[in-house]
Structures are given as structure tokens and as C-alpha cells.
Fold:
Amino acid sequence: MPQVRGSLHERSVVGEGVLTSGFTRVNGALVCEGVPLARVAEDVGTPAYVYSASVVRDRFSRLDAALAPMPHRIHYTLKANSNRGVLRILREMGAGVDVVSGGELQRALRAGFDGSDILFGGVGKSERELREALEAGVLMINVESSAEIRLVDEIARELGVIAPVGIRVNPEVTVESSHRYIKTGEKGAKFGIPFDEVREAARIAADLSHTQLLGLDMHVGSQLFRLDPYVDGTERLVELLGQIRQDGVDTLRFLDIGGGLGVSYDDEESPDLSRFARALVPRIQPTGLTLLMEPGRYIVGNCGVLLTRVLYRKHSGGREFLVTDAGMTELIRPSHYDAYHRIDTVQPSAGQMTADVVGPVCESGDFLALDREMDEAHAGDLLAVHDVGAYGYVMASNYNSRPRGAEVLVDGERFAVVTAREQYDDLIRLELDDPEWRDS
Structure:
């Protein structure tokens, strides 16, 4: 278990509205639950990702309660944040998980999940990954083509098992989202089996001797704040279910509506879970199937901040720059997705400024914010980049041979380093000083 440290803060703020936000100010200084962020930076250094355990529990509990009117299970999507500390919290709360690679499968197993807790998805699973999934006894492999169904059957035959498969359907619904890269359920997307080909794929899965068709699955996109895509997609899945049952396939047990619930990064309104459930449960309940859902960002997006130190403040070409020790290598979303992340000073600031917050990486695209109105900051000040619990550390890189930062979990008045900061030796440990040369 990681070493747990107590907070220096004089009083607990848990229970004072923090359980839903995780981060607040006490005497002007930012704290995570009951732990001052300045204390974390002092002990752990920067850059560092800091996660609130209470936010993770709160988000999971809210969604679980909303879906309570019917049989369901929430399978958290590891690609949002695969930290073992976060996974242990969710496992303790009864979550399953959704993985999209062999590496994520291993992470889930090592975090204590059983094979029956795991959905295995992904558009390009290798033969090795499919074999590992079957050997682990996963609940279901969500296949994305007829060719993959046949490959799964072949591997299952070799292993002497029956492969549990679901079909990922491309529901071909119109999606309004913040960026085209996170639309996955529109016609022509690389994900899923085209809607008009699903019935034939179901026949193939039903006819093969070592596969059993257990579910229909969809994922319409990410950062969704409207109900329409979910409702349209669900109705299309239910329509397909009826057709597949008419074809004599009676083995289906699950209807998987994916994830995609939006989280607020700026002024977006959080999804109304009660309204979400009222719209979907009556459409799914008559099928008699168990509802599966695969949220990722919704569970962890708002649970984390990235702590970074201002290295320099400089003026150039009429612009003010804050050069920090974190950049695109720690958080690529601003550069890659034009994503907005609020940035505050950790300690109270007397004024405001407009600045480009940029990192140390040798790329013009290395920035956390451009032309941002924010707290006045100077060299040495500590900044908190908010809402990095999803797609922060998991998308971090070692570009410019930069070691990745530490991950810290806060739980009430205590905190622990749950991923150690990389060292220079970690960057080169897989390189061979004396490689084995081979003749052509």
C-alpha cells in the first residue's frame, strides 16, 4: 500500500460542499478535500496530478442510483484514467470496467477485478489481445467486424472455450460534440459495425460453434449534454434486438449504451441524471436485458488537477507569457482538442492578468492556455490546472525526454503518491547497450 500522509490543514472541509466539487478555497488557498494543494506540491514536487477520491465516489454513486430502476452495471472505462488507486476505489464500490487493450486488461486484473468484471472493446484488437481476453474469462468481447467475430471463434476453438461476444453497433446517429475527434457514432466512423450489417453479423456469431452472442453495444461519442443521441441510439439498438430475436437468436443478455456523458470544464451544465434515466430506462426495461454503461470522463474528469510551477514570466510581441514546468507532455488536450481547462493560482492572488500559459517543450503547440484572463502570477507561483482527471496522465508522453509526473490520491485529510514520479533511468531502461545484431 502507498504511504499515507496527514494534512497540515487545521480543519476538515469534507462535508462542507466539497464532496461534489472536490476542490475549494480555505482562507484563500486551494485545497483538495482536506489537504492543501501547496502541501502536496511541497512534498511531491511538480508537475503532479492530484485526484479527489470523494469526487470519484460521488459521481459513481449518482449514476448508479439513477439507473437503479432496472438491472444494470456500470463498467468504468479505463482509457479515461487507469491509475490503480482510482481503480481500487471503483472496484470497492462495485463497478466493472471496460478495457480497450491488452495493457488495460492487465491493469484491471492487477487492480483486483475478475475476468467477469471486464468488458473488452476496441476497434483493432490483436490476436494476442483476444487470446488474453478469453484466457482471463472476460464478461464479453465487443467485436467490431465480421472478420473479428470469425477470429474470436477460431481462437476460442483452439482454447476449448465458448467466447462471449457483443456486437458494437454504429448507430449512425447525429451527434453534437465539442470536437470532431470525439464523435464515434455517426455514419462513416471507424468504430462499430455499420447499422445495416449488424443483423448479418449476429447470424454469423450465432452460427459459429465457439461464440455466443450475449449483447449489443454502442458508443455515440463523448462530451454529450443532450439526450437525443442516447435516445436515438437506444431505440435503434432495441429495433435491432427485435430483428435478431426474430432470426431465432435468443442468447442476448446485455444492452450496452456506452459512455459519453459530458462534464463541465467551463460553464457547461452537468447532465441531469434523473432525466437521462427517465428517458432511457422505459425504452430498455421491456427488453428484459441488463443495462450496461461505460462512463469514463463523467466519473473522473472533474476529480483531478494538474499542479505546475511558474518557471518564468516574460513579455514578447505584446503578449504576456507564463512559462510553467508542465506543458503538452503533461496535458495534451488544449493543443490536440482545443480544450479549455480553468487555471488558478493555488495561493491567493491580488490581481488579474491576460497571459499565454505555455510549457517548456520545444514546440509552438506547447501550451495550456492562450490569451487567458486569469489570476496574476509570477515566477515561483504554483498553478492548478483544473479538470484533468480524465485524459491527463493517460495521454502524457516523454517527448523531449521528459519524465512523467507523479499521481497523488487525496482521501479526506490524507494523501498518498499512487504513481511515483519517473526518473531519468526510467526513460532509458528499455534501451539496449549491447543489442543482438541479426543477419538478413
Observations:
- Confidence is low (pLDDT under 50) at residues 1-19, 178-186.
- The chain has two domains: 4-47+301-426, 54-295.
- DSSP finds 13 helices and 22 strands in the chain.
